[in-house]
Amino acid sequence: MDIRCRRTSCKHNAGHTCFAGFLDVNSHAVCKTFERDKEKKREELDLTKNMFETTPNYENFRHIKNLSLKCNTTKCLFNNDGKCRANGITVVDDHEKSRCASFIEDI
């Protein structure tokens, strides 16, 4: 699973890659692991919003065998008994909240 994050002001973010040891997504698809780094003044420009004309300098893919990813979004298609089974997730800035953009409602 690939964990990407557009919240570059988070202390766990390095090159748009999440390096937290534990990821917790609540029932509203909000990443509760987000912690603002006071040293990072603002969000870095996210060039992926422009449909990949130019891409940011990503850190290498993170092997996450040891990452604990807890998902409480029971209505998500990728939620399997509280664990995410998506191939990857991306956390985005949604009005000052860190929201899981990989959420797809399971109907």
List the helices and strands and how they pair.
Blueprint: E1 2-5, E2 13-14, E3 17-18, E4 22-25, E5 68-71, E6 79-80, E7 83-84, E8 88-94, E9 97-100
Parallel strand pairs: 1-8, 4-5
Antiparallel strand pairs: 2-3, 6-7, 8-9
Keywords for this entry:
3-stranded mixed sheet; mainly beta; two-stranded antiparallel sheet; single chain; about 110 residues
Distance between the termini: 24 Å
| Mean pLDDT score | 80
Helical content (DSSP H or I, runs of 4+): under 10%
Secondary structural class:
mainly beta
Task: Choose one word for the global shape.
Answer: globular
Unreliable residue stretches: none
The portion of residues forming beta strands comes to 25-35%
Query: Would you report the number of β strands?
Result: 9
Tally of alpha and pi helices? 0
Largest beta sheet: strand ordering: 1-8-9
Q: Please, how many domains?
A: 1
The main β sheet shows up as:
3 strands, mixed
Order of helices and strands: EEEEEEEEE
Radius of gyration: 13 Å
